[in-house]
Amino acid sequence: MIHNRRDFLQLSALAGAAALTTPLAGFAWPGQQKKLGIALIGLGGYATNQLAPALLQTQHIELRGIVTGTPSKIPVWVEKYKIPEKNIYNYDNFDKIADNKDIDVVYVVLPNSMHAEFTIRAAKAGKHVICEKPMSVSVKEGEAMIAACKKAGRQLAIGYRLHYDPFHLEMMRLSREKVFGEVKLVEASDGFRAGDPAQWRLHHALSGGGPLMDVGIYAIQGARYTIGLEPTYVTAQAFPKTDPQKFKDIEESLAWQLYFPNGAIANSFSTYITNVNRLYAAAEKGWFELNRAYGYKGQEGRTSQGPMQITPINQQAAHMDGVAKAILENRPNNVPGEEGLRDMKIIEAIYASMAAAGKKLKIG
Ligand code: NAD
């Protein structure tokens, strides 16, 4: 909302700056802030059950397009979200989105091995990109995605919704402000029981790996932002498979340790055979934890002084609004491609250590 002449001038300047980098800069005239338009690629579980409903709550971005390989899904989306026919694409004609001024941002919600291709195609079409985690299935792909978005002058954001979640922001604050002294140990684990053996998550060609790629990445993230430094070394161990047939393509359970330059250690576990969902930090004078930690809701936080009093929010709406606001204000977002790439480097080092029987390896 415009309150005074200074706000007006700031908005006008922003609109001018944004117009240099975005075809639809989000501002019509002063006082009339337009929302960015987003298209979802891949109308699976996360897009259908979390992202699209969250886009009904966002202030800075709204659902205007879909990209799907399954035509039978289209009527439901058209009816529910009033998507015009001109904003509906399939994987083949997707590149034509370059000519569509309704769409400013493309959100890639496909199986992991498809992230790089569609991020790069979206960037070439002149769109900003939000790409789900893990950003790619290799460091090399992640670097190519960042380069493509840079070349196109568009933002790349990764689907790290927890960077906008108040429970995780509190974990970051407690560490950063050393409320309990310096964090010395993080125990972070994330796993669940993977049901359907036919799902893409269990097939390496589509997933790029097992629970580490899918949910272990949250434990890596949690360790990094709760210690507040970048790890330099890893060790990792695979566990014997209890169902070698179902998990023939990927690891079933694994553990790993991250070693930080100040001597702090993170010890983590990830699995597809049982539920675990925890982020615990031991500091010099106390501890703080989330348990449950990584879900869309149901977080519970405690410190050595008592429960955290935090009101939950819609993480997906906060994440997409946060990224949209950064685009509108022409400044970097909180979860850029480089953040995803750091995790990919750690993941590659974990797999390499696991393959080398737990040898201590330097990251990157
Ligand atoms: P899903 O299986 O429910 O949906 C996948 C979508 O991709 C479907 O619409 C499917 O039709 C489409 N698809 C296209 N080609 C495919 C192929 N060859 N094989 C299988 N599906 C194909 O998966 P999802 O749970 O929505 O996950 C999609 C992405 O979102 C993944 O990268 C996942 O890691 C990520 N994700 C993130 C969160 C989060 O909290 N940030 C949560 C869930 C999923």
TrEMBL record:
Entry keyword set: Oxidoreductase
Domain Gfo/Idh/MocA-like oxidoreductase N-terminal: 37-160
Pfam family, one: GFO_IDH_MocA
UniProt keyword annotation of Oxidoreductase present: yes
Domain GFO/IDH/MocA-like oxidoreductase: start-end pairs: 169-288
GO MF annotation list: nucleotide binding; oxidoreductase activity
Protein name, as recorded: Gfo/Idh/MocA family oxidoreductase
Organism: Chitinophaga lutea
